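Anyone have tokens for Vps41 beta-propeller domain-containing protein? Sequence:
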Amino acid sequence: MCADTNNSIENEEGDDNDEEAEEYEPVFKFCPITNSSEFRENKNNTKNAPAEFSCMAVHARFIVVGKTTGEIIIMDHMGHTIPQYQIKAHTYPVNAISIDDNGDYIGSCCQEGKVKISGLFSKNEDQLHTFPRPIKAVCLDPNFSKSKQYITGDTTLILNERGTFRHKETKLIDFQGGLIHTLRWKETLIAAANDKGVGVYDLRARRLVGFLESTDTNTDVPRGIFPSRISWNDSTTLVIAWASTVKVITITNDTMYDHQSSIPRKSINIAASFKLEFFVCGLTSINRDLVFLSIENFTISDGTSELSLTILSPSGKEYEEKAHDPFSMQGDQQTSPFQFQLEYLPDEQCFFILNPYSISKAERRDYDDHIDFLIKKQKFDEAIQAFEKPPTRIDAKPKRHTQQSVYLAYVTSLMGNKEIEKAVKLFPLVYKTAEEWEEQILLFIERDQLDMLTPYIPTDAPKLHAPVYQKILETYLQKKKYDKLKELLTKWPSDIYDLSVIDQSIILQTNSEKTPQALLECSAIIAEKRGDISKTLTIFLKMQNIQVFQLIERKQLYEKILPNIQTLMAINQNYLDAVFSRKPDDTRDFHTRQVSLYAEYEPTKLMGFLRKAGNYNIQEALSICEKKRLPRETVFLCGRSGNGRVALQIILNELNDIEEAIQFCRETGDKKLWDTLIEQSINRPDFIRGLLNHAGGDIDLQELIDKVKNDLRIPGLRDSLCKIMQDYNIQMSISECCRKIIVHDCLALRKQTVTLLQGGYPVKDSDLCAKCHNPVYSCDLLTNPPISVFFCLHVFHAKCIETNPDVCGVCSTNALFTTA
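Reply: yep, here.
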């Protein structure tokens, strides 16, 4: 068995502080399975109810409980009685009950000295024996169904067995120290306890192994309040507890025994002895672990206090505390220590605890209980981690808990601590149905906290009822939170609520001349969702809202917005270029108007438009550009209209840009413009220098230089002339390089041709002479006449072209052969 604590019982003061004690996670969970009031005739009178239960025994199939009235009740492990197996055994309180290993027989004894053996499935084996003294203890042979033996004890240990004709009693040993109150049978050994101490008897050898007197010296309580508690761990280990004293004894074979006897003598040895900080009221030993039913204290006046279940595990020569779980039972304070009883059920690994008023069951806490503990301690992060990432152990899997249950506990705690914003983020993990969400929404509306919840309200899986969505929207409308209303109208799909209902509610608040912009946007969004795009466009244009451009892009409204292009330019000047670049052909009818708009709002982009567009009126565009004083655009339009001379004059006189003038002349390719440019430049030194530097390939520089006056001073002329010479040298160098490349290529091609011509040409016997049309040679002849093959690949017999052997008679311009 394991637990979360690890404290040595040697450390009396302890190292745990109060905070650590609070963090201790119990090992067991306790639940009552029945109470004495269920077996009384008047169940309603629970006040001052008398004690009903006196003793208990546990089997893998059932629980047997003795009552103070002498009855024996049989119930399942959940506390449900099994009516057909109830036994009316005695008329006095039942002192002890014993069950054989098979669960076929039940032995019981009572205060009046009677012992009854009851068969559950056959009454033929029932026995009833009366002894002269009260019998406090009875113990059936584990193999009773075969041996029919059992042990009883008053002051003497008695072996009872069925003889051939009558019941047979054998007094084994007399314990001087009062009535035997506890008996435990393990193989051939019997442990018996009375008020004086505990003895071990070897039934096979029929001798006493040893006797340990009680060493508890507590004189504050009357004798018998804390009777000896005994439990076999195995056939060689017995654990004894007297009040707060514990001894572990081992049974060993005595090496000095009489070898003439076939049965070795056994002896007892104390393996461990220690004091506890509590008092023992019940004991069982499991795989060397010691399990105690304990109380903190007991007084005649106050009764018992702080009932707990404690586990000690061996660690070397000491024992360490592995669990110490306090719990409570009905009537535990009114119960004396000797009235408690602890029994262990190995099959289910659980404990049953009895007092006169109730029976409780102690089970090992499972993984769900671990999560419950973390939740109870408000350790929600650890609880979530434990659920989502459990250890790899087989038993470390939640069965009862779900993601929803863990997060629900967390949300409930957050809501209780007023951490609303943190709680609503977890709502999608907690609330899975429409009804749960609707309940929360109504609560948040009542608390005026709807803003915190709306980001997490689902629109699908689960989908809420339409009136709930409408209630949310109308709430924002009534509270004039139009921005929040607009956000939800944009975010939510239109099929989850009635658009007409919300539209009518908005119309009722938009009749005023001072309608808020946000509310107008809400109206536009509703109109778009209803398919009334024209209304949406009208509202945005009226508001001069930047969202109109998103609407145009989204709905492809380029044709509809052209009449409103000036309004759109007032909203955003950059949009004009986007309209033209998106679909230029769709705006052909408005190109002239676009020229005016570009000139007014985007003059830097006008030149690009003029070059790309082709459906504007050139004269109107020229007039607009002249009016707006846009010389370069004017030059372009003049050139496009065929008035190159005027365009050139504007470049020279207004722009004063010789390079642009050269470029203009070069683009037009008109020699007359070049002549005009030279004439306009011969009296302007900077223009002359520009022509020398940039137009050397387009004009006759000699002619230009001849026209320049001899006394005209041209700054930078030397540099220009040097540049001309450098350009000439570069041109000559390039020409020479080109000549060398051509010569090299020609030589390479000639060599390739010669190589090709020198190669042989395969002639087949199927080839025919181009003149006589007979095969040029035959494979059957040893020698064939000579043949000739021309570069044109025509083949002839040599004798067929004797008159002109160097010319192909087929390809020659003067046909040498006539067609037959």
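The longest strand covers residues 266-275.
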